[in-house]
Amino acid sequence: MGSSLLKISRGIVPDSFTDTEYVALHLSTRTDLSPDDAVVFEKESFAPIMKTAKSMDIQLRTIYKNTGGDVAAEIIRTCRNENPDFILLGGAYSVFSSDLLGGVIRKVINEVNCDVLVFSERQKIQLNSILLVLFGNGDDYLIRYAYNFFKKSNQKCDEKDVYHGLINIRFR
Length: 172
Hints:
Elements: H1 2-12, E1 22-28, H2 35-55, E2 60-66, H3 71-82, E3 86-90, H4 93-96, H5 103-111, E4 115-119, E5 129-133, H6 141-152, E6 157-163, E7 166-171
Parallel strand pairs: 1-2, 3-4
Antiparallel strand pairs: 5-7, 6-7
């Protein structure tokens, strides 16, 4: 999941933003780890994303915390301390609870002072299209994110279907 989030974030950040800091946050709710085991678990948890960061020539700072169970509170606290421009939030289905905006996601979206992009990776994917859902004033920045993503991936925007606030952008 972390590698996919890093690739997406790199894809939407404009190249002109040369001082962009990338931070990966891994939260664990495990309470059964000794301090020594936690160090090993942390290293193993970040290994895939660190490999991806190295291959993309991205300096990546990592933060590992054991929450003891309150994942939403820790994400909110970390956002307040780090003050990011946006966060890409990914997680297992259980994080989403019974609906997409349930549980942790709903709390984070309501409490942080930055844009929140939610990504639920169901399988390894090759992006062929992105569906942007626009609800009204202020949602235009989503089009800029998509444009940056397409531009950086050397894709051409083939068609835009606009229907009641939905924009389906396909690329070839």
